[in-house]
Amino acid sequence: MFRALSSTTVRWRPLEGEGLEHLTLTKIDTTDGAVIRAVGVLIGSRGGTPYGARYRIDCDDSWHVRKLMVDTTDGRSLHMRSDVPGEWATARGTPLPEFDGCIDIDLAGTPFTNTLPIRRLGLVSQSGTARLKMLYVPFDTFQPVVDGQHYTCLDDFRLYRYEAEDRSFAAELPVDEDGLVIDYPTLFQRLSPETI
User: Fold this and answer.
1) Could you tell me the pTM of the whole model?
2) Name one Pfam family in it (predicted).
3) How far apart are CA 184 and CA 164, in angstroms?
4) Looking at the domain assignment, is residue 76 inside a domain?
């Protein structure tokens, strides 16, 4: 099992180009129940275009995403909410039915969002492969799209296989006791606590 979540800070760097992510993950007790909050700051580049962004993802205590906020340093923003798992709306409540069935999100510039389905599903090696519809946010356009992704547990609570539904990309992702990615082959590497 993953350990009970406490306040955690991690950093990753991209393996290509320059960049850095600083993430703080906390559990907050509110009158409406527990909120798992991830706040990250990213700098990097995608397709040769540099970006700087700050994101906040709020989940309930079962790791269902409830709010997503991404703001870039060049003035773009994306704010969405999911009051019911698999149903999305703008921050003001306008329904976004094109994302029906997407429970988890995937932000292109961070390995953190791999943690969301890993923690929510609690996959073990006997679970088989979970086939998911993700709300994917590319960091070049910041226009969300639906993306098919598959997750398989290879070693309980330690190693997971991620695969794009179109089979264009796959990676084995070792995770720590919080379910956070330690190494993302060809894309990201976690920095040791001593360098934070």
Assistant:
1) 0.94
2) Glycolipid_bind
3) 14
4) yes
CA dist., res. 11 & res. 26, Å (int): 15
1 falls within a domain:
no
Q: What does R_g of the chain's alpha carbons equal in angstroms?
A: 16
One-letter amino acid at 162 equals Y
Distance separating alpha carbons of residues 66 and 175, to the nearest angstrom: 23
pLDDT digits (tens, 9 = 90+) for 77-128: 999 999 999 999 999 999 999 999 999 999 998 999 999 999 999 999 999 9
Q: Which long-range contacts (CB under 8 A, 24 or more apart) does 31-35 make?
A: 33/60, 33/61, 34/60, 34/61, 35/59, 35/60, 35/61, 35/66
Q: How many domains does the chain have?
A: 1
Q: Is residue 2 part of a domain?
A: no
Asked whether residue 44 is domain-assigned, the answer is: yes
